[in-house]
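[audit] Reproducing an earlier prediction to check determinism. Same input, same settings, fresh worker. If the tokens differ from the archived copy the diff job will pick it up downstream; this log only records the rerun itself.
[audit] input (375 residues):
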Amino acid sequence: MAGIGLARALRRLGDQRSIALISADSGDDYSKPLLSTGFAKGLTPNQLAQRSAVQLGDELNAQIVTHTPVSAVDVDNKLILLENGKAFGYNALVLATGAAPLVPFKIAASVASRCFTINNLDDYRRFHSALGHHTARVAIIGAGLVGCEFANDLHAGGHHVSVVAPEVSLLPRLLPAPLGTALGDAFSMAGIDLHLGRKIESIASGHGKDTVLHLNNDEPLSADCVLMATGLTPRIALAEAAGLTVSTSGIQVDRYLRTSHSDIYALGDVACVEGINAMYVQPLQASAKALAATLAGTPTPASFGAWPILVKTPLLPVVAYPPQTTPERWRIEGESGNISALAENKDGRLIGFALTGDCVRRKVELSRAAPALLG
């Protein structure tokens, strides 16, 4: 989304420079957030793709290089070195390498073909193909944003879903425990099987084609497929090897998205903008628009508003704007799944919020009162 969005923004500004988009995957144009809505809508992977790489290249008057990982960046000679032995020169380079799934344990070879992460359309294709057209038992490891959205979507698509996580409530990074518990209640009432407060001891082959998850309470959980939704980590290896300033939060950039090397920029999930890495659509889109203006000759700093995260869990609507600092208190009001939680600092000022059920209607009101993510 970041790389294509930047190219589109440049073309909208009338910038006619030569553009090359280099991708390790298929290069199709698609909306990544829609990956966790496809099963409920009965959409095939090809239906999620809005344009092929060829169509995208025609639209943008750009060269699209697909299924071609980049092996190194030669900053001294301004070259991109590809794994196929070819090289690209550049005047300006934008690293929009995103974030990779973080799998905190080893997967045995015997079950690797039944364990999946979904971080792009090619991943989704493999997972969709593995499920086939029959009702499947899917075990999801992780109770964060990706895990909860896919749990809701796969359930709506007719599959039997189990969620396993070490935390005791859902969406622990976004919601105070009472709201996470309310979402869990909605999931349980719908028939999603929750195994919270549980860790994975091992994943092994069972009888036939079964995959068995052994939990730390000695309870085995059988599944046809396992979806690992255990977090993301920015893909910084390429930048780090090139000598750019990086941290575990991403490639360090200033408000103009410039890295520690003046001709190289970072954008999207891999970019840490003045200490903030917001892996969500609105900051990405705002960054792409600002960077396009900068590259087109009008230096424009990125700024992020108080943009709440809309979680795609129709079983119980959720909106969250996590505070950037630890709140002094959470003021929680409501019941029966319709709950507002307001994060306040020691002066009683609103610094974040979380909403479930009917209370999501307050998102505009509270967003106006909350501080900007990056003003």
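[audit] rerun output stored. Observation attached for the diff report: The mean pLDDT is 96.
[audit] end
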